[in-house]
Amino acid sequence: MNPKILILIGFMALSLAMMGIAVILPVGFAFSIIRVVLLILAVIFDVLAFASRYYTYLMLPFLKQHSRNIVISDQPPYWISTTGDCIVRKEGDIYTATAYINIPLYVSSSEMTDEEKLRFANQVSRLVGLSRDPVRFSSELYLMNKDDYLQKLKDNISEMEDAEAKLIDKKAPENELEHVKGKLSMWRKMLDTMSNNISFELGTFATVSSKGVKEFEAITIVQQKAKELMNGIATTLGIPPNIVTGNDILKYVEPEYLIPYTTITEQISRNIQHEVS
Amino acid sequence: MDEEAIMYIAFTMVVLLIGISLLQYFGRGLIEVLCFFIIVAGVLLILILNFADFILMSVVAGLFNITFQPAQNYKITKDQNAIVKNVNGLFYATGYVTANLFAYTFKIETESADEDEKMISAPENWERAIMNIDFPLKYHVLSMGLDVQKVRDEYEGKRSYQEFQMSRALQSPTVNDMTLTEIQRKINVIQRKIDRISQGEKPIATAMYMETTAIGVSEKAALDTLNRQISGLQISMSSMDVDLTRIVGREMQVLFGFNFALPTTFEEASSYFDQQN
Questions:
Q1: Measured between CB atoms, does B52 come within 8 Å of chain A?
Q2: With a threshold of 0.90, does the pTM exceed it?
Q3: Which of 210-249 (B) contact A at CB < 8 A?
Q4: Are B33 and B56 contained in the same domain?
């Protein structure tokens, strides 16, 4: 039987049992107090029976763990499929594969006439109604990833600092030292400018999922669905959408890819320096 | 309210009704009154859980300082309004806000003359809103195509019922103009929906929401920034005419799960959204 129904029946039975015990208790003031306590317990169990409709997934870990930090799952929420074009999640015996489709929209209303704006708005309305299956269309505003570039700048600075130290050690001529100092100053200024400004990118994507009792089944179905959806998007908007693959999927899933680590830590340390000085 | 909710309410209310019928066995006078109020409190709690469980659960979690771990490295805060991820000592807090754009268009009686103007200004309004935002944001539209014939039959049934109400009101000797106008308005709204379907518009069900992520060197800093960002959204999105409500509790966890796996049927999707818009 479904564990949800079992929990409902269990709590209701407990509630009725409490009431039954209260009723068969002997007459007397002391027993009246016990009856009230039993009734309160019966009502609590009945409310819990109702709450089990939504919160079965919380009740079982809560009862097992006796902790204020309830661990519903300590597993990663998904993994990237071996085909690399979707992510897979397992709940119970069911696998759910989810594909992400990038929609390369590079248009701005500032470059459109009123007719073009109307046509575009209608195209977007049609896009939303493309599929019978649930599809999620999303616009994502995220921080431009400057991690690699900032790291390169930092490497250059370390290299120049190293070179400067070596030149000082071997008492090199002044012009050579000045040359290295100049380069060092240039890289530092570039790092300063790059990490002071945050730039944003706007991306559009669609998400579609499918279920299967085997991982490959879910993946195959989602690939098929994604292809159909891509055809629909291409026809409606006249642009070539593409399935997002590999680690690029993480940009749409994980928060740290929305706000890249080095880019933002640089920004945070600048802010702290600014506040301190 | 769906069948499952009715079933849960019916079963749990039967238990409380049994309690009321047994009141005389719990004691007399004050004890009986006390027991009656305990049962009434139970009824109220069940009704609150049914219509606004997200309020009750966030209060309970906040009161007892309960946090949840829905997956590895993720944590749902005690206020049940944000999900925090710890990545190498940096905290990424994500919050969700409802942003329903289309609801109002289905509530008007007649096609307004400036509908085209609204569509023309939509891309501009969107760009203006996005340009005012200086933090990461995702705007999601989860759409599901509905069965055209089924939806049409449903609307025709509703129209017939309203027409029956109208003929009954006309035959009544105590009929007033306000009642007739109200019924006529309802008929017009339904007729407009039928007309739109007849014109080739596909009926779809949508759930629209926004997701924003904030970063901080501590959990509190991230959550404070997140709260500021969500307040900022109210201002930035003012040109879009959307009603923004912060999503808390179970439905927030559902939306968090949508990043990894979407529902695959309309029935599955609609079972998740019944309370917070």
A1: no
A2: no
A3: 213, 215, 217
A4: yes
